[in-house]
Design a protein that fits this description.
594 residues, Rossmann fold, single chain, alpha/beta, 21 helices, 4-stranded mixed sheet
């Protein structure tokens, strides 16, 4: 039976959640026409073709382009230049138009807006917005931009003139402020939806932290809480506030927001080269930032002096070669979680563990969106009931988590490649702990194996010596260093490193650092694989606590054991180990309370 809405527009419709929303709407209350809008042409074409095969009785159309900027939406039947959002602001003319839209005439901004043009062209009855607006806006990183502008000012003052790049820095800084962009975006949406007589607008939002708090351990190497991550949360809930105002505005459509509070996934599991934002040698020398596959480089030993320059460099680094003699790419069994990124088993296991972000499926989100469009009260609409609207981790997510982990383990065995960490989940500290735990697992297999028995018998010195010997012989060291994690050897002044370092984070205005013993300790704690004796003692303490958490009473199999304070496995399951550490050790404790 056809639904009341004859035309439905899905913003971000080619994404993980967007596709499930399209399927659910087409199945449960099919409209005459469904329009998919996404950033890139190929993903939109693939989505539309898939939906046409599944629902041949419904008309599907697709548009692509950056909905946050000026321009006309391009139908998938036509080809146009596609620019990454990261590269868009690198062009002076583009920065100027964004600046004009933010701080200039609203009417001009409305006339030139791509999202407004799309809504005006299609005049949908219902709009489902699954674009991660908070990430798109807040992750332009006002904090780094502010630092760059400050350094540029210092350079200009010291030189007695404004440097050539300073104008770009100032413009980029001014257009990176999240709140003006968010206000403009919501105003444009309100105008376009109202003029098009859209009946309902459903936003799939975000908490910014996957339901966790200020203690979230998943950052990008900054101090916790991460200013960039907190900016995302602030933007997400500012967005909710603006949608709340839109819902109270006369002649506006019905406004709903579904706000998942867990990691959303997953799209697929497979063995393939890992893709993401990485560094490449530039033809003219130096480096360039690209969105491509991760290359493997042979690490080299480097003595630590008084300073550390973490500007990416490829001088003296050789590419690892595969069996065919070609440059090797980082290829591991991974789970693709859509917009959240691609994770290894270790990363997936950690982030979905009890007390961490845990897990919810896109199908559940799509079902809620569908019910809200139909007029059912789900109790999960943030606009009408903030306190009771959060979509928590689900039973299905818990079941599928184990299936995903088992499939990843099977792929590890088949391919002979461990799935540990690639850094796309965010914090270098997570990857650091995962690799350290994996090396310990290779050496000792079990928790008691690390300890040397039911009671700790091994010394930290013994473990440190064994770890050094093992790591220096392990091919895995090249993977560790190629993803930006240096390995600090037991002497505390020598590292194995790759072309770039994740800690300290690279900033083009400040990339040389003093290296005191205290600073080395800080870097090692944040994201260096640390083989020093003191850190091996730390690991001994943690494994002792894990062992005692199970054996403090007669049996480990009772309901009271199933909590974040207990590590139940006898084996070293690296994701569970790191999740236990985040839950119980790292200050502030990085677990969710509801």
């Amino acid at each position: 039976m056809p639904g009341r809405d004859q035309k439905v527009l899905l913003l971000g419709g080619a994404g993980l959640v967007g596709m499930q929303c399209a399927r659910t709407i087409a199945r449960e209350h099919p409209p005459r026409r469904i329009v998919i809008a996404s950033l890139f042409r190929q993903e939109t074409v693939d989505a539309v073709e898939t939906l046409r095969r599944e629902f041949p009785e419904i008309e599907f159309a697709g548009y692509y382009g950056n909905l946050f900027v000026r321009g006309a939406p391009t139908p998938i039947e036509e080809e146009a230049a596609e620019i990454l959002p990261r590269d868009y602001a690198a062009v002076r003319e583009n920065r100027q138009t964004v600046f004009d839209d933010l701080y200039g005439d609203f009417e001009t901004a409305y006339r030139e807006s791509m999202v407004c043009a799309l809504i005006d062209r299609e005049k949908p009855d219902a709009v489902v917005d699954t674009v991660n607006t908070a990430t798109a806006i807040s992750y332009q990183d006002l904090f780094s931009s502010s630092f760059v502008v400050s350094r540029g000012l210092e350079e200009a003052v010291d030189a007695g003139q404004v440097s050539d790049g300073f104008a770009k820095d100032v413009e980029s800084h001014l257009i990176s402020a999240a709140i003006p962009q968010l206000i403009l975006h919501v105003r444009l949406l309100h105008r376009a939806l109202s003029l098009s007589k859209t009946r309902i607008y459903v936003k799939v939002g975000t908490t910014g932290t996957g339901g966790m708090g200020l203690n979230i351990p998943y950052t990008h190497g900054e101090d916790k809480p991460s200013p960039t991550l907190m900016s995302k949360t602030a933007t997400a809930f500012a967005h909710t506030g603006l949608l709340f105002l839109m819902a109270r505005t006369p002649d506006a459509p019905i406004i709903k927001e579904i706000k998942p509070a867990a990691m959303i996934g997953y799209r697929r599991i497979g063995y393939a080269p890992v893709r993401g934002t990485t560094y490449r040698p530039a033809p003219e020398g130096g480096f360039r930032v690209v969105n491509g596959t991760y290359k493997l480089y042979e690490c080299r030993e480097e003595a630590l002096g008084g300073t550390l320059d973490n500007e990416p460099t490829f001088d003296g680094f050789s590419e690892v070669r595969d069996d065919s003699g070609n440059a090797a790419e980082l290829t591991v069994p991974c789970v693709n979680t859509g917009e959240n990124g691609t994770f290894t088993r270790g990363e997936f296991e950690a982030i979905t563990a009890l007390g961490q972000m845990e897990f919810v499926t896109p199908e559940e989100i799509a079902q809620l969106v569908s019910l809200e469009i139909q007029g059912s009260n789900t109790g999960r609409d943030v606009i009408t009931a903030v306190d009771s609207s959060i979509l928590s981790p689900s039973y299905k997510g818990g079941l599928i988590r184990q299936v995903a982990i088992e499939e990843l383990e099977k792929l590890e065995d088949e391919r002979g490649v461990p799935s540990i960490a690639i850094g796309q989940l965010g914090p270098p500290q997570l990857a650091k702990y995962l690799y350290e735990a994996y090396f310990l697992k290779e050496l000792y297999r079990t928790v008691e194996g690390v300890l040397g028995g039911p009671k700790p018998q091994r010394t930290a010195q013994e473990i440190s010596d064994a770890m050094k010997e093992h790591v220096l012989q392990s091919p895995l060291r090249h993977t560790v260093t190629s993803v930006g994690l240096p390995i600090l050897l037991p002497d505390g002044r020598t590292i194995l490193r790759g072309p770039f370092l994740r800690i300290p984070a690279y900033n083009r205005k400040a990339h040389t650092f003093d290296l005191s013993a205290g600073q080395i300790d800080a870097y090692a704690q944040k994201g260096w694989v640390d083989l020093r004796v003191a850190h091996m003692q730390w690991w001994l303490d943690q494994f002792t606590a894990m062992h005692d958490s199970v054996h403090r009473r007669e049996t480990k199999w009772s309901s009271e054991r199933l909590n974040i304070r207990t590590y139940l496995s006898e084996d070293i399951r690296i994701g569970e180990v790191v999740a236990w550490i985040f839950n119980n050790v790292i200050e502030p404790l990085g677990h969710r309370i509801k």
